[in-house]
Design brief:
The structure holds 2 protein chains of 2 kinds. Helix content of chain A is 36%, strand content 21%. By secondary structure, chain A is α/β, with parallel strands linked by helices. Chain B is globular and about 95 Å long. Classes of the chains: A alpha/beta, B alpha/beta.
Chain lengths: 232, 474
Amino acid sequence: MSREQMLATLRTSLASNRAWLEAEAHKAPHTPPPFVLPPADDLAAQFAAELTKLEGRVYQVADHEEALETVATLLEERKATTAVAWDRAQIGLPGLDKLLAERGVQVLDPVVRDEARKAQLQVLEPAPVCLSGADFAIAESGSLVLYHGPGRPRLASLLAPTHIAVITSDQLVRGLGEAMARLRERYAGRLFDVTSNLTLISGPSRTADIEMTLSLGIHGPPELHVVLVQTP
Amino acid sequence: MATQTLHFHDRVDTALHDETLKTALERATTRFVGNRAGAIDALEDADGLRRQARALRANALSKLDELLARLADQVEARGGKVCWAADGEAARRYIVELARDRGVKSIVKSKSMASEEIHLNHALEHAGFEVVETDLGEYIIQLAGETPSHIIAPAIHKTREQVSALFEKHLGMTPTTEVPPMIRAARTALRQRFLQADMGISGVNFGVAEEGAIAIVENEGNARLSTTVPRIHVAIMGIERIVERFDDLAVMLQVLARSATGQKLSVYTSIISGPARPDEADGPEEFHLVLLDNGRSRILGGQYVESLMCIRCGACLNACPVYQAIGGHAYGGVYSGPIGAILTPLLQPDLPDAYLLPQASSLCGACQEVCPVGIAIPDMLLRLRADAVKAGKAHPVETAGIKSYALMMKNPLVYRAGGRAARLGSRLIGRKGRIRHLPPPLHLWTHGRDFPQPQGSQSFSEWWEERQKKGRTQ
């Protein structure tokens, strides 16, 4: 059946219930609340507490130098020699490129397209670490909001067993409604002209499918480390 | 699939005698009910958020034609393809032909109720494609050759020993009673399936008309992998699963996660608008959105339109005393629990005993109480029962029973005699305060149900008369 036929069928059906549905639609405001829980004073502390509950790790650091030390330790502990990463300019941590070079961590070519797709996926698969930034961090749910686009591959927050994300405290928002509003502001309604994919991440990959037993890392990273840099 | 060849009452019987299922259901539903209650109670304005969610669903349905057209236009403008599928056959044909045309060999799937509704896996396997379910629960039941028993936790009826045996047989895993090695075995096996796959198929939690996007929620990361790694992504969306604006997601995603699992948000939410852009490093080169009607437009014009507001959170299943006792398989359709008892007769009317499902409810109202969009489920179940009677589907014994009841209620002498007989009878057959078996033909009613034995030696009217007399003498 064609588009027009299906839409015509819908229009005919709607004729009998449209008025009732419209009345139901007017019974509450449509604009989402900026947040849904009683707001906290210290958003960084709230974010850290929430993400910790979800088995994520948060490192609240004072400056870029401390952030680099934290990332260095995490790479060291995992004996990382390769990584799947965003372009360093997109992560927004000055000195990260130098750190990776010094540590001998090779950032793999993230381009997974066309004929080379399957072969390049096998090259990326053994990398122990993913490195990314984020656009916003939601305090009340411990979530990261990241849009993927040029220089921001999706696999850099998905493929490896450890995902390290670097964010700054001015990216913190209270709730999902606030994050949506800020996204709209920043991209002036043209978000999906830039990117085809926006992802919210709230903790490491989890499942309870075997006897309701919580287990981490069934598909996505079992470890999520967020380095939260205090901005002046 | 074997369960579907049995009659509804036999499926219920099987479920009620399955001790493993009973334990699993109790564990799962108790946990889900507690988690949901905690997550809803914590909200600053739970009732306000619920009313908003309902208003947003009603708003979207009230202009469904317009919103679907906008969604499709936007997806196409960004290089995606849209399939308008009036029924399951059209959707299956489109996907099978697409896979053939693109030389696809293997397909990975993330959870999609719509794909189960149209038996997509069967069609794809029949056409020679290898299809792997990648949600852990779905993967387990696919290996076992079974169907989901719960919308959120499809394999809750499987014990860890059963899962270990399946993984030993299919993945060569060393048998274990520990869960972590099973998780690692599944991750390793499925990871290679993802990397080798040519096509990823997903469901859709919400289409967003304004932005021309779809939102998919999950906890495992398999939906992210399915929609990122293979070169083709096919998303199947029931046409009612749409919201008007991007902002609406801020309400819907939160009520969905809180109602389903008690999470504040699911671990991963992917909002996708078309194929990867040319300057992106990864993501699918092709994006296809299948808009599935399959009976939904008929529901939209009828008295059960409210059922289209459902966001598939599963809260009504967990809250339902009948579901807690019989689980998902007994319902026979793809959708189970209270909302399944409505959706199955409407979406799968060809299932021979679908009309019986609305009987599988005590009309206690727990489902409506927990529904994040306040669907009047008990009311609709009653109306569906009436529909079945009008369609001549009532059991002859039931019809005769109702007729004699009417006769009795109109005649005080017969009523009293009947009451006395029933009281005497209930004393004879009650055991430990409960009546589990009534004599034929009433045994049809106690098959799968019991009820408390009436207490006291008098009927209400006898007691009342006595009381009135006493009152007069005092």
